[in-house]
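Sequence in, structure out.
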Amino acid sequence: MSKLALLGGKAAVAAAASPDMFQWPIVTSEMEAAVLEVLRAGNMSGTDITKQFEDEYAAWHGSKYALAHSSGTAALQAAMFGVGLGPGDEMICPSMTYWASAMPALSLGASVVFADIDPETVCLCPKSFEARITPRTKAVVVVHYASMPADMDRIMAIARKHGIKVIEDVSHAQGGLYKGRMLGTFGDVAACSLMSGKSFAIGEGGMLHTDNLEVYERAILWGHYERHGQVREETKAGAGGLPWGGYKYRMHQLSSVVGREQLKKYPGEIAEIDQAMKYFWSLLEGLPGIKCCYPKDEGSSKSGWYASHAFYDSSALQGLSIRRFVEAVQAEGVAGCRAGGNRPLHNHPLFSSFDIYGHGKPTARVFLPEDVDPRALTGELPETERINSRIWAEPWFKHYREEEIKPYAEAVRKVLENYEELLPGDQKQAEESGWALTRRKD
């Protein structure tokens, strides 16, 4: 009988890890007490606690301004409006990302041009970004994908050369570093999701932060009507009092108070996660077919390792498909393992051929010249098209406990040492990724 559990052997992970090894977020008595205090006071829809959270979040990044939102999607849309994205503009974005990094641009009348990714970071490729710049390019969204920092030195140099606004999407990497500097502090504005699955988890909500007063004020005008009194008259131009976007994006204060408590303990939690994940990978060093995905630059990090992915090389395993490899690893008891990342956004018709608002023509082309097609501007994205056969999600340990981590590393090692037994049953089917990076429990 085979040693592999998929083929009838005994699973490497014989016993489940402690219940809290994969539980996230880590809820403390202080968080519970703070939530109950807000709840009992009926202060869910105020702004006093939210403003305190904003101030503390901004200080954490060394930013001048922060504005809390009801979701990361809302924060990203507000950031796009904040930098002046509007009808006829083009916004460049990697196709390998969650839809909220790009989709809100369509509601502002802009079109999305997708760029390819760097195969070593799975983040925006600077060369591909620059190749897609046109006279209509207003902004670029830089996603620090799956907790990996993008190449901000090269990206910022290109953006400044061409006068393009930079929006950092830090939804996957709150607290992460690029060459010793915090992610979200390079561009004109940063925005992120803080929903319960993220590394910095507050329940539901998003955050925008910036050093640019005009961007901050425009974001307030867009979806925070009750705070228009904070905005200078020259910015609101007599049109205050009503939300310019027609949206109400206030964060409820149950999330805000959780965020304040998270700021106190988050650095310690992500440090332990980093220690645990690096230990896991130290046990797999030298094995063929897999490689840890981690920043090479000194002072850079994978903060929290949210949705972290590792590399897979089928050529080192006689062509064994990533789908078959993951299936075998899962059978060994590694439930958190999955193949691929997001489904590439540039393949979705909403960004090219679908009429969302009833204009009688594709929404993505409504404000562009008649002879301009966003699909042609995007062109070929070879690295994006093949990335889901090259990356897989390793288990996400929340605590550094060597004896509990070892069986999971042994499961991966066992599959790789016996991979030839998997070849006969490998149908080499393509991995079918979803539009979301992580799968929800429901």
